[in-house]
Write a structure and sequence with these properties.
Layout: H1 3-19, E1 24-29, E2 40-43, H2 60-76, E3 80-81, E4 88-103, E5 116-131, E6 137-146, H3 154-169
Amino acid sequence: MNAVMQRLVVVVVAAAATGCATMEVSSYAGGTPFPTASRTYAWGDAQVQPTGDPRLDNNEFFAARVHAAVDRELSGRGWTKAAGTPDVLVHFHFSVVEELMFSGAETETGYCADCRPVVYDSGTLLIDLVDAADERLIWRGWANGNVSGLVDNQRWLNERVDQAVIRIFEKWPAAF
């Protein structure tokens, strides 16, 4: 394989690796006791901080997709939207930052003669449940992963949001 083909293979593999990067997911349960009685929720105020991508700031389709996915997960766990005063308020936050990955650095020798950086967009989706009475954090779940090209492909945006919310709620404590 000639040098040009080798470089092309490295670039294609690096691009594929960033496109298929794994999603990191975790959660945190605060010290606030979780409501056990009625299990009702309402959506709190919308995100006010910029996401890092102006195409997602105030994007009603994106926000609606997150709301629908979270509603499905909460409903599946026996929660209902409150007709009156809710037990908890749900908030979501999303941010995008550019990350840098160096391809080729993981060669057998630990050295590569033609390492090239790959820049990609890393996105973090946070979902918070807070006590409606005093706004103390009850539970936070989050997912972080590659979102390069997400905004330009509505189908992928929808799939990625659904996947992230499902994975976040896999961290839902059994006691809740």
